[in-house]
Model the fold of this input.
Amino acid sequence: VCRVLFEVSQAPFPQAFVGMQTLKSRVLVIVALVAMSGWALFPRTEVVRVKRDGVFVLDTVKRVPLKRGLDLQGGMHLTLEVDQSKQAVADVSDALDRALKVVRTRIDEFGVAEPVVQKVGTDRIIVELPGISDQQRAEEVVQKAAFLRFQITDESQALEKAIPRIDGIIKAKGITVAAAPASTDTASAAACGLTALMQRADSAAAPAGDSAAPTASEGPFRRAILPGQMPGQYLVASRDYATIEALLQRPEVQEALPPGKDVRWGVDSILNGTDAYRALYVLDSRAIIDGTYLVNATPAQDPLEGAKVDFQFNNEGGRRFRSETGRHIGDNMAIVLDDKVMSAPTIQSAIGARGQITMGGRDLQAAQDLALVLRAGALPVPLKVADGRQISATLGEDSIDAGIRAAVVAVVAVVLIMVVYYRFSGLLAVGALALYVLFTLATLAGFDAVLTLPGLAGFVLSIGIAVDANVLIFERIREELDHGKAVRTAVEEGFKHAMSAIIDSNVSTILTAAVLYQYGSGPVKGFAVTLVAGIVASMVSSIFVTKTFFLVWLQRARGQQTLSI
Amino acid sequence: MLRLLHGTKIDFIRHWRTAVIVTVAFVALGFGSAAMNGWYKYAIEFTGGTLLQLRFQQAPDIARVRSTLERAGIPGAEIAQFGSATEYTVRAQEEAQVAAQADGASGVARKISAALEAEFGSGAFTIERTEAVGPRVGAELRRGAVIAVLFSFLVTLAYLAWRFEWRFGVAAVIATAHDIIATLAFMKLLDLEISLTAIAALLTVIGYSLNDTIIIFDRVRENLRRNRREPLYDTLNRSVNETLPRSILTHATTIAATMALLVLGGEVIRPFAWIMTFGIFTGTFSSIYVASPILLWVESRWPRQGDARVAAQSARA
Done:
C-alpha cells in the first residue's frame, strides 16, 4: 500500500490535454487506492496470545489493524540499563544482548498481549507492556536476577569466632552507626524472648573468646547477633537490621568476616512472640549446585507450607544434587536466591532431580513470578530502570475520546469553510479530504505505525493543513479565470502553477518531520510518522484526487463556461 | 464567488519597522517575565524526576497532600490541579530525588503513592499516570532536542538553497528563528513547560512557518522570472498580496483544527495546542514581515551578479 502511495505522489502531472483514456486510468487508480486503503483498515481477525486463568491460550480477536501507543491504550514502558553501581561490566552491549533474551522470555511468560522488548542503541533495553498497571510487579519480574544457589550452612561456628575480632575492628576504627544506641535495649528484649537460645550461645561463645579483648565483647555484633535455631543461622532483631547491614557493608568488616564463608540475610522476618527478627546465615561459599541446571519450575499451593515453587534439574544436575545431598544428610541446605536465603531445610535424605522452594507465607502470585523467572533463567547482568512510565487504561480512553471529538469538530469546521468559500469546488476538495483521512489511516496501518496521543493531535492538525494544497490550487484557478482564460485551461494552468509551491512546502515539512523522527523518542516518533503519512496522503488527495474530480466534471459538463469556485 | 482580500495592494514591506518593534516588544515581554519569575520549567523527561497523575474520589486538601509528602521525605514536590477538581499531578523534580533515581527510576513514585495511600486510605485515589525518569535519560533527551532543532535548520537551509537560492534560504531560516524565539516567549508568558511534546509542537511550527514562507517565496521566484524590470521591493509586496487570499483561508482551516484541539483535545494535549495556535500566527506574521524584508536586505547587501533572473537591478533600484 505504502509503495503505491509514494509512486502515485511522485507521478508527474500530464502537461498536455488529458484524454478519455488517461481519465479512465486516473479514476481506476483512485478506486484501487480506496480499495487498498479499505482493505488495509478492514477489521481483521488476529491471533493473540493471552493468559486466561493462569494458562496461555491462543485467542482470536477482530479489530481494526491500527496500533495504539501506550499513552492511548494504557500500559507500562520501561527503559532498562545495566546496573554498574556494584560491578563494572566490560562489554555492555554483549551483556545486554544476553539479558535481552532472558527478559524477553520472562515477558512472554508474564502474559501480556503484545509486548515490545527490544534493544535500543548499545546500552538500553526498552520494554513496553500494554494493559499492565501493576508497575512494581512487572519491574520485579524484569529485574529479578534470579540467580539460584544451594549452599550448606556453616557448622564450624566461623562467625562466632570472628565476632570479637570484628567488634574490635569496629571499636578501633571508631566506626559509629547512627542507629547503634537503640540496639542496647533491643538486645535485652531479645534476651527475654529467646532465653533458651541465649544459653546455647553462651556455651558456644566461650571457646571462641581466645583472642577477644574483654571490651570488644560489648561491640555491636556481640550485642545484636543472636544464635538461631540451626547451625550457621543467627537472629538479629528487626530494629538492629539496618545497623548490622550497614556494618556488614564496610570494607573493614568484610575483610574480617570468616574466609570461605558467605554471610547472607534471610528473606523474611521471623516472629517470636511480639518481637520480629531477621535471620542471618553463614554459608559455605562453595555452592553444591546452582540454577543453571534448572530445567523447569512450577508454582504450587501446599496446604501446610503455603505457596511454593517446585523445580526440576536436568540429568547432570540431578546426579550432582543427589551425590552432594547424600554427603550432607543431617546438614541444613540454604536455598539462596539473589543473595537472599529463601529457606534452609535440613537434608533428610539424598535428593534427586526435584526439589521445592517454599515462599514463606507469600502468596501464590509470588510463587508464580518466581517460577517464571527461574524458568527463564538468571539475568547475566543486573539491570536497573532508567525510565519508567505507566498510564492507566481509562486515561488512554479519555485521550482517544477527546482526540476523536476534536477531529470531528475540526473536520466539520474545515468542510464548512471550504464549501462556503469555494462552493462546488469546495465540495470536490471535501471529497478529497475524506479520501485524505482514509489514506492517512491506511498508511499508518500499512506501515504498522503506532498511533500516539501527540500523533492523534498531529492528525487533527493535519486536517486543517491538508486543504492547503487545494486552497493554493483554487486560488490559482481563480487567478487564471481572472485573466480571462477558459474554464478548462484555467483548471489545467491552476494545477500546473500551484505545483512548485505545494511540492517545495511539503518536502520541507517532511524533512523537518524526518529530523523529529530521528531524534525524538516514543510518542514524538509517533507524531513524526503521523505527520509524514498525513503530508503524503494530502499531496495525493489534493493534487491527484481533486484534479481527477475536476477532469470528470469537465468531461461531463462539456462546454461549461463557468466554474463554481 | 466569495472573495476575501482579493486584489489588495497593501504595502506590507513598508511596515517592517513596526513589525520589528512589535516582535522585539513581545520577545522582551516574554523573556522579561522569564527573568522576573524564573527561567523555563523543564518537563520530567528532560530533568529527570517523577510525576504522578492522581484521580481522587473527592477533591483532596492540598495542604494535607503536601505535608504527607514532606513527612515521607519528598520535600518541595509540586502539586497542581490537572483539569478537573479531583485530578492532580504531583511532581518531584528536585535534584536529591532525581539523584535517588539513578539506581532505579520508579522508587520515588512508589514512595509517593505509598505515603498518600497511608494518609488517605487505599481506594481514595487512582494513579492515572506515572512518569519516572532517571537523570541520564533526561540529559540525553535535552541534547537530542537541541540537535533536532539545529539539524532541521540545516536541512531546510540546504533544501531551499537547492530549490531556490541561498538568499531565500537565509531569509527563510531567519524568519523561522524569529518564530522559535517568539514562540518561546509565548510559552513563558503562558508558563508552559518545555517538554518533548512542546518540542514537537515547536518543530511543527517551524514546518508550518516555512511552508508559509516558501509559498510566498515561490510567488516571488515566479514574479522575478516574469517581470524582470520591477524593483524587488515591489515584487515582494506584489507576491505577498497575491498570496494573501490563500494565507487567510489556510489560516482559517488550520486555526479551526488547533482550536478544536485546544478546546476539546484534553488536558495532556493542551500545551501542544497552545503552541500550535500561537505558532500559526507568528508563522504567518514572520513570512510577511520578517522573511520578505530580510530577503530585501540580503539582496541589497549581496546583490546577485550576472544572474539570468536579473534581480540585481531591482536591488539597486
